[in-house]
């Protein structure tokens, strides 16, 4: 279970003690709320209304490119457009919310990341007992922004980078699926605020896992 974390830490330079943030012992989440906001809709970004996270609900913020980069509330992500396409949603004129609920028993999906170094973060994702079914995973590098940051009146988990492991192959073995990847820290992001979120769907499109990391000393 800890081999990916060990690999991750060994890949880092021998500086001071490195932090390791994992999904271990983090309660599974049953509902995912994805809020898509157009980057140039300042009123949307400054609106404190809308869904709030709970013990069983995770709220993510995606920033969709606007018509113009001028006046943008926060840097947009092209990955937001890909995610909208996956969810079969159109780009919002202002903002839109998509809610997904986990089906069935939680799947043991483990994620981990280390400290940022030279503008990169080492990350890992592992699905135990994957079987031969095709899986669709999204590993999201998010920034945990407090209320007041960039003019937002509410705390947000803003998606900054996306990695999608190729777990759809038919010729793989029946054991665990695992990936390690360095993800770049975007400009203007605060490295100490970065966390990971992962969502997993099976071959029939059912949401099977929603997990996130916590950093413990």
List the helices and strands and how they pair.
Elements: H1 3-10, E1 20-22, E2 31-38, H2 42-45, E3 57-64, H3 78-86, E4 95-101, E5 109-117, E6 120-127, E7 135-145, E8 156-163, E9 177-184, E10 194-202, E11 207-212, E12 214-215
Parallel strand pairs: 2-3
Antiparallel strand pairs: 1-5, 1-12, 2-4, 5-6, 6-9, 7-8, 7-10, 10-11
Description of the structure:
There is one protein chain. It contains three helices and twelve strands; from the N terminus they run H-E-E-H-E-H-E-E-E-E-E-E-E-E-E. Helix 2 (42-45) links the parallel strand 2 (31-38) and strand 3. Residues 4-16 have low confidence and may be disordered. The relative contact order is 0.24. With 217 residues, the chain is mostly beta strands. It is globular and about 50 Å long. It has helices at residues 3-10, 42-45, 78-86; strands at 20-22, 31-38, 57-64, 95-101, 109-117, 120-127, 135-145, 156-163, 177-184, 194-202, 207-212, 214-215. The chain has a five-stranded antiparallel β-sheet, covered by helices on one side. The protein has a four-stranded antiparallel β-sheet with strand order 8-7-10-11, with no helix packed on it. Strands 3-2-4 form a three-stranded mixed β-sheet, with helices on one face.
Give a summary of the structure in a few sentences.
With 217 residues, the chain is mainly beta. It has helices at residues 3-10, 42-45, 78-86; strands at residues 20-22, 31-38, 57-64, 95-101, 109-117, 120-127, 135-145, 156-163, 177-184, 194-202, 207-212, 214-215. The two termini are 19 Å apart.
């Amino acid at each position: 279970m800890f081999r990916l974390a060990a690999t991750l830490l060994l890949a880092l330079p021998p500086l001071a003690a490195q932090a390791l943030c994992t999904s271990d012992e983090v309660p599974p989440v049953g509902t995912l709320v994805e809020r898509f906001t157009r980057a140039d809709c300042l009123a949307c970004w400054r609106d404190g209304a809308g869904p709030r996270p709970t013990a069983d609900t995770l709220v993510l913020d995606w920033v969709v490119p606007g018509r113009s980069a001028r006046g943008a509330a926060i840097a947009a992500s092209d990955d937001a457009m890909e995610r909208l396409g996956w969810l079969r949603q159109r780009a919002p004129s202002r903002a839109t919310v998509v809610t997904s609920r986990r089906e069935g028993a939680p799947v043991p999906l483990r994620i981990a990341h280390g400290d940022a170094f030279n503008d990169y973060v080492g990350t890992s994702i592992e699905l135990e007992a994957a079987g031969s079914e095709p899986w669709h995973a999204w590993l999201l590098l998010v920034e945990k922004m407090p209320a007041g940051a960039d003019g937002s009146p509410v705390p947000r988990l803003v998606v900054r980078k996306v990695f999608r492991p190729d777990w759809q192959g038919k010729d793989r073995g029946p054991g665990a699926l695992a990936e390690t990847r360095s993800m770049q820290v975007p400009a203007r992001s605060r490295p100490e605020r970065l966390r990971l979120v992962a969502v997993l769907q099976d071959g029939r499109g059912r949401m099977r896992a929603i997990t996130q990391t916590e950093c413990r000393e």
